[in-house]
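Aim 2 progress update. The chain analyzed this quarter is reproduced below.
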Amino acid sequence: MIAIVDYNMGNLASVKNAFAKLGKATVVENNPDNFKNYDKLILPGVGAFGDAMEHLRERNMIQAIKEFAASGKPVLGICLGMQLLFQSSEEFGNHEGLGLIKGKVVAFDTAKFSQPLKVPHMGWNKMFTQEHPLFKNLDEEHYLYFVHSFHVVCERAEDVIGTTEYGYQFASAVACANVMGIQPHPEKSHKNGLAILENFIGL
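Predicted structure tokens:
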């Protein structure tokens, strides 16, 4: 069974509905004591990093998520949920993250943009992926739906399994053992997004 973490910062219904389309039941879980009872954990998220960490802290979820990850069971962070997996974020100050993947979250450096581009990065964009179980059976050129103003910088290059070009190349998918994250929204990315979720089910 898959749990979707409910900490009042995510588009829970659309993620749950995406799994339902694949015939997979999920549970929207707000009790951290129950996390250990599930096989897989989804950490969604929409909004600001600092607010999200505060919500997790208020609900006593931080240690429960860390213990779940330490158990070796698969964890998938989506959009802000992926960013929370990292050690820190520079979004509206400096904030400590879950620290499950080494690296930090930074704003798009518009000075590096090769042409005038808007932030947030919003809409369909291509992800260039490395071989990984999350990416089986995707279209040869797979476009996914993004909405974000900050992106992750991995400390270890081997943790980057997908990149995207927006002004410059940034990490848009990461994996460190059983802990994985994707910046785009698979639940809004039609066929290719559903394929990623189906691959996660199969891990």
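The first strand starts at residue 2 and ends at 5. Residues 2-201 form a domain with the Rossmann fold fold (CATH 3.40.50.880). These observations will guide the mutagenesis experiments scheduled for the next reporting period.
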